[in-house]
Amino acid sequence: MSAGVLTSTGVVAAGRARRTRRWRLIVTILAIAVVVAFCLSLMVGRTFYGPDEVLRVIAGQKVPGASFTVGVLRLPRAVLAALAGFAFGLAGVTFQTMLRNALAAPDIIGISSGASAGAVFAILVLKVSSAATVSVLAIVTALATAGLIYLLAYKDGVLGTRLILIGIGIGAILKSLVSYLIVRAAAWDLQVAMRWLTGSLNGAAWSRVLPLAVAVAVFVPLLLGQARNLDLLRLGDDAAAALGVRVERTRLVAILGAVALTAFATAATGPIAFVAFLAGPIAARIVGPSGSLMIPAALVGALLVLVSDLIGQFAFDTRYPVGVITGAVGALYLVFLLVRTNRSGGSL
Amino acid sequence: MTTLVAPQRSPGVAVPRRPLPARLAWLGIAVVALVLVATASVAFGSRVVSLHEIVSAFTGAEDGIAQAAVRGRLPRTILAVVVGATLGLVGTVLQAVTRNPLADPQVLGITSGASLFVVTGIAFVGLASPMAYIWVAIAGSALAATFVYAIGSLGRGGPTPLKLALAGAATSAAFNALISAILLPRIEVMDEFRFWEIGGVGGATYDKLALVAPFLVTGALICFLSARGLNALALGDDVAAGLGERVARTRLLAATGAFILCGAATAVAGPIGFVGLMVPHACRLLVGVDHRWLLPCSALAGATLLTAADVVGRLVARPSEVDVGIVTALIGAPFFIVMVRRLRMRSL
What we know:
- The complex is a heterodimer of chains A (348) and B (348).
- With 348 residues, chain A is mainly alpha-helical.
- Chain A has helices at 2-43, 51-58, 66-99, 111-125, 131-153, 160-184, 190-197, 206-225, 227-233, 237-242, 247-269, 275-287, 294-314, 322-340.
- Chain A has 14 helices and no strands.
- Chain A is globular and about 65 Å long.
- Chain B contains 14 helices and two strands; from the N terminus they run βααααααααααααααβ.
- Chain B has helices at residues 20-43, 51-59, 65-98, 110-125, 130-153, 161-183, 187-196, 206-225, 227-233, 237-242, 247-269, 275-287, 291-316, 324-342, and strands at residues 2-4, 345-347.
- The chains are: A mainly alpha (348), B mainly alpha (348).
- Chains A and B meet through α6, α7 and α14 of A and β1, α5, α6, α7 and α14 of B.
């Protein structure tokens, strides 16, 4: 009898070890894919530079031509793409896990629109020109938007469903404000408009990368520290509390971290459509039912933005901003959801 | 897992039937209100015209600047009245057909479908005649609505208001990205589209009005004819079928009417949100839930609301103006939030 129990514990332990190995393998593969995409976006362009030249530029050597093209144009763009994708992916999966709804990403429930509205208001109405000030304003408005949504959703406690719907309502107001400001702007600048409507990496510079890099360094560890608690929240508030999770505290930290990441990333690149929305579900399909989704989703986000930007820049006659490409991917994903019609596993 | 259930005041059951004189009185008041705002719409603008001058413009007694201003504002006023009435009808029918208190052409992403189809038609098929725009917009509305409804029905619990609203928001975001993808290489289409996209009645002409009139009349007739069927649908599919109603046919017919109206209105005035959301709820309080009363009342109230919103938009930003689509979003989204807060949420 006791031998049987022992064996079954052994089986469970072996299964857990196998799943952990599988999870580590997947994360490693995703990380390698991100690095490959990153290097590709440094090498590919109007002029192709080989890995050796790119490496020498990164090492700080002077390479005629490549120093400018790779060092000044491509490197900030690629870093910005990777960081923004990482931030959007992590923020998206945090919201989806916390609200227990695969459609409840920060770009759908109005948080990105808050950041966008703040940035557009700063640029077009307050005539702010420094990227840092614009970022600060975008972050303040995104936090204020999230706070407002949270307050409005509060009625004998906050319910995920009510929070999502109120977020959609607030998002509608902010989006109409953004379009109004842009359409009424004296000089219609397509690049600026596209950046704040769908997200774009054009005009990437180190001054825009820096605030986002700091935010990623601060808030990513904060969120990853809550990964276990967040995964337990998926079981429902009561079950999580019974397992020793401080539910409200976890939720508050998660909201703060995810909103901050969304806000900083939006301030740097605009609301790149659907990255936050797609990263979680894609990661869930790759990783499977066991194992944390946070790191895989963040890597998937980075990969999505890097690859979409490459496609947007070079696959067509027109250079499309990255948000247009990710948006089209999002449309395909919605169709895929329909076609799959997996009723048993449907947890929309 | 939390889900949303229809509110107690769902189309149909809990609201008491209003006495006939009260209903007639409210309809009368709605007519008076409409006449008042229409007069205001003709009178106010960058030049304020007196009542005497308005009358003289119609009788042809005098001919001056004031009379010219009145004649210039007349098509715009008529368009606002007609589109507002249309949106009121569309909202009422959509809320009844989907049994969803949050249904609205913009919330459900239907207007973005119309936009996407029109843009696609202009860019790829060389669509040029306004008549063709209307047909294409109707087709786009119908397809987008079906798409959103299908996505919102995935998973457990069928099409709840939450899932429909999320599916609508996600679909709009995806369609908007596709619209950007089509427009970016075609700067000349884009320049026209960006003004149309916000939704406004400023570009009204008698030609446009004559063009959409047959569509609006047909759509409105279909909606009015299905009023009795919509009353039966409010009881729930099973009860309605038990009472001898052919549920699927009623739903299809009423929805077709709504798509014709929505597509035609969007083709002439651009996407205008939230009128269809607010009006039916207000009218249900005034004349009760019988669609034979509710539909005319919604048409009158929608016309009043949109015309008033247009006047407000012209007054607050003189000598410039705020497009009516922005004004309705600014009034309507808070209304949406109040609605959400009143919905009964049930924890499972």
